[in-house]
Design brief:
The protein is 80% helix and 0% strand. The chain contains 13 helices and no strands.
Length: 272
């Protein structure tokens, strides 16, 4: 892999990871349509670190709050129930844990079945059409003052949306934000919770990738990895900022049109 290729793949990862267009779906489509080789585990870990850094920078205030809340719970485990009731940071931390559980269960129980679906660009294309429908439904949701924070039931249901988005072509951010909106969260709070929920998801992907890496090390160039890391981090940061601005303005439907277009083109190619 050249430095230029690493930058391009890092940009694709950074943009599609956070915009509701399905990063996994684009990976499948690019691989199948353009004959791209599967990227190395080392590079995959690197660009995931880049996207994780982007989230941590954009949501640094929330991350600091979560770390402080975690210390409170660790130092006073007997008061955990009381702290969760009284402290907004502790409630958010518990909500993120609850929201992460469905994806962990699905990943452990259906890992092989999901991996087989990544071989089908047609399946990814159909899921892109579904993503468009989800985003269109979210865009039509009336904008109103919603809940200040998700309940544990809200967090679990949003987590179920994240678990479903393990399927290639189904947008993680689009699905989780839509579930949040239909559970009564306002647009920005639904989006912010969705992005915070991506932190344990990205960490989980890193752990799995590191396990694969441990099974067989691969040669790599430091320049290529730095290029991929930097491009993924910068574009990821810009993508989050851009997306949050669009969410506030109620422009999710733009991404619905895009995913419908891409999905329809891929299906049409399969039919020729």
């Amino acid at each position: 892999m050249t430095v230029a290729q690493a930058i391009l793949l890092g940009i694709i990862q950074g943009v599609t990871e956070f915009l509701p267009v399905s990063s996994s779906g684009h990976l499948v489509l690019l691989s199948r349509l353009f004959g791209l080789q599967e990227q190395s585990i080392v590079f995959e870990v690197t660009v995931h670190v880049g996207t994780l850094l982007a989230v941590l920078v954009v949501f640094q205030d929330e991350v600091k709050l979560l770390l402080v809340s975690l210390l409170k719970l660790v130092r006073s485990p007997r008061r955990a129930g009381e702290l969760v009731k009284q402290d907004a940071g502790c409630r958010l931390l518990v909500a993120l844990v609850v929201g992460t559980i469905p994806a962990v269960v699905v990943a452990l129980l259906f890992k092989e079945q999901v991996e087989r679906l990544f071989a089908s660009s047609l399946f990814a294309a159909v899921m892109l059409l579904v993503t468009g429908c989800i985003l269109h439904a979210a865009d039509r949701r009336p904008s109103a003052a919603g809940k200040l924070e998700p309940s544990l039931l809200d967090a679990f249901l949003i987590g179920c949306g994240q678990a479903a988005a393990i399927l290639p072509g189904l947008s993680r951010s689009g699905t989780t934000i839509t579930v949040g909106l239909f559970r009564g969260l306002d647009r920005e709070r639904a989006a912010r919770f969705s992005f915070l929920l991506s932190v344990p998801a990205i960490l989980g992907a890193l752990v799995l990738a590191l396990m694969d890496l441990w099974a067989g090390a691969e040669p790599f160039s430091a320049g290529v990895l730095v290029a991929g890391l930097f491009s993924a981090a910068v574009t990821g940061y810009l993508a989050i900022r851009f997306f949050l601005a669009l969410v506030r303005r109620g422009k999710l439907v733009w991404f619905a049109y895009y995913t419908w277009f891409v999905g329809a083109v891929i299906i049409a190619v399969h039919m020729l």
